[in-house]
Design a protein that fits this description.
9-stranded antiparallel sheet; binds alpha-D-galactopyranose; mainly beta; 5-stranded antiparallel sheet; disordered N terminus; 38% strand; 8% helix
C-alpha cells in the first residue's frame, strides 16, 4: 500500500516537469513519451525524435523501423490532432504491429512464392504471408534500427535515417545502402525522400506504411473518408493478393476513385476483386508520364475538414483500408483499433514486379541510384 503511494508522489512532479519542459509530445490520444522508446537493440540506440514545423505541426518518429509514431495536424478550427495509428511504446512495436507507420523494404508488398531470378540466379525469400513474401520478409526495414541524424533544412525540420542492408540479408542479393529523409516542411507536408545503392543487381521497392485516420487517429472507422486517386487502371490480384499481370480499367467498378468517393460507399461490393482483398487492398496504376513529383491522390475527412494530398514520383500505390484490423491491436491511449479504422496509401512500384516482365522494373544495378519521393500534404477545407 505504502510503496505505490510513494511512487505516485515521486512520479507526479516528474510527469509535470516533463510536460512543462516539453519532454512529452501531445497527441490527440495523449502524449508520446520519448522514454518509452529509449533503448539499445543489438548495441544500437533507439530514440524517439520530434519534428515541429513553424506552424506547430508535429511528427514523432523513431529510428526503429523509421516508424512515424504520431503526426499532429490541424482540423478546420485549427485544433491539432493526431492522424496516424500506432503505439505508445517501443515494446508494443517490437511485440506485434501490422506495420503501423513504418518504412518498408527491401520490397514493398508481395513477391509471389517469395521467389525471383536475377542475373540467372534463383533466390528464395522467406514466405511470411501465406506462400508469398510480404514487405521485405521476416525482418524487413520496419524491424531494423536505422542511424538517425536530425537536420534543420530550409524547408523545415528533418530526420535523416540511414541503414546498410548486408548482402544476403533476408536472402536478397547485394549490399544495399539506404537513406530516408523525413522532412516536416513549413508548407505542412510530411515529405519522404528515399535513396538506395547496391553493389550487385537486386530488386528494391521502398515505401511507407502509415495508417491514416484524419478524423480521430483510429478511434472510429475511415469509411466516411473521401478518397480520390488519379488512376484509370489497377492491378487485379489472385486470392492470395498476387497480381495477375493485367492492368484492368477501373471504370464501372468499385475501384474507380477518379472522383472523390467515400471509402465506405462500395467497400462491401460483391466484385470478386473486393472479395479477394476483403475490401480494398490493391495497387492502383497512376495516370502519369515520367518520374516528376506529381499529385496522385487526396483524402478528405468531412467532419474535421482535414484534407491530405499525396504527391509522388512512383508509378503506383497500394491502397489498403485496414481490413485485417480487428480490435486486437491496442494502440495509443489504449485505443483498440477495430476493423477499417486506418488506411494506408503506400506509394510504390507494383507488387510482384520481379516476376512480372510487363510491370515497370524494380531492378537496381550497381552504379545506379534508386530514388523515390512521396509527400503527404495537409490542409483543411
Ligand atoms: C499491405 C498489404 C496488406 C496487409 C498490410 C499489413 O498493405 O497489401 O495485405 O498485409 O500491408 O497488414
Amino acid at each position: 500500500m505504502f510503496t505505490p503511494r510513494r511512487g505516485l508522489v515521486v512520479v507526479g512532479p516528474a510527469l509535470a516537469l516533463a510536460i512543462f519542459f516539453g519532454g512529452f509530445v501531445r497527441t490527440s490520444s495523449g502524449q508520446v513519451n520519448p522514454e518509452a522508446f529509449r533503448r539499445k537493440i543489438d548495441g544500437a540506440q533507439v530514440e524517439l525524435y520530434t519534428l515541429k514545423n513553424k506552424n506547430g505541426l508535429e511528427a514523432t518518429i523513431t529510428n526503429y523501423g523509421g516508424i512515424v509514431v504520431s503526426l499532429s495536424v490541424p482540423d478546420k478550427n485549427g485544433k491539432l490532432g493526431d492522424v496516424v495509428l500506432g503505439y505508445d511504446t517501443l515494446n508494443d512495436y517490437i511485440g506485434n504491429t501490422p506495420y503501423f507507420g513504418s518504412l518498408i523494404g527491401r520490397y514493398g508488398n508481395r513477391i509471389a512464392k517469395g521467389r525471383f531470378t536475377i542475373s540467372g540466379v534463383d533466390y528464395q525469400l522467406a514466405q511470411n504471408n501465406a506462400e508469398n513474401s510480404l514487405h521485405g520478409g521476416r525482418k524487413g526495414f520496419d524491424k531494423v534500427v536505422w542511424q538517425a541524424e536530425k537536420l534543420d533544412t530550409p524547408e523545415g525540420p528533418a530526420l535523416k535515417l540511414t541503414y546498410t542492408s548486408k548482402d544476403g540479408e533476408e536472402n536478397y542479393p547485394g549490399t544495399l545502402g539506404c537513406e530516408v529523409i523525413y522532412t516536416l516542411t513549413n508548407n505542412n507536408e510530411l515529405k519522404i525522400q528515399y535513396a538506395a545503392e547496391t553493389d550487385k543487381p537486386t530488386f528494391v521497392n521502398l515505401t511507407h506504411h502509415s495508417y491514416f485516420n484524419l478524423k480521430d487517429a483510429g478511434a472510429s472507422d475511415i469509411l466516411g473518408h473521401e478518397l480520390m486517386i488519379k488512376s484509370d487502371k489497377f492491378t487485379p490480384v489472385d486470392k492470395d493478393l498476387i497480381p495477375t499481370g493485367e492492368l484492368r480499367p477501373v471504370a464501372g467498378t468499385p475501384f474507380d476513385f477518379s472522383k472523390p468517393t467515400a471509402i465506405g460507399a462500395r467497400v462491401e461490393s460483391d466484385d470478386e476483386q473486393m472479395k479477394f482483398g476483403r475490401g480494398y487492398d490493391h495497387n492502383w496504376v497512376f495516370n502519369r508520364q515520367g518520374k516528376e513529383l506529381e499529385l496522385v491522390a487526396s483524402l478528405y475527412e468531412p467532419t474535421t475538414g482535414r484534407f491530405m494530398e499525396v504527391l509522388t514520383t512512383e508509378p503506383g500505390m497500394q491502397f489498403y483500408c485496414g481490413n485485417f484490423l480487428d480490435g486486437t491491436n491496442k494502440g495509443k491511449g489504449g485505443t483498440a483499433y477495430q476493423h477499417r479504422t486506418g488506411l494506408c496509401l503506400e506509394t510504390q512500384h507494383f507488387p510482384d514486379s520481379p516476376n512480372q516482365p510487363d510491370f515497370p522494373t524494380t531492378e537496381l544495378q550497381p552504379g545506379e541510384k534508386y530514388t523515390q519521393t512521396t509527400v503527404y500534404r495537409f490542409s483543411t477545407k
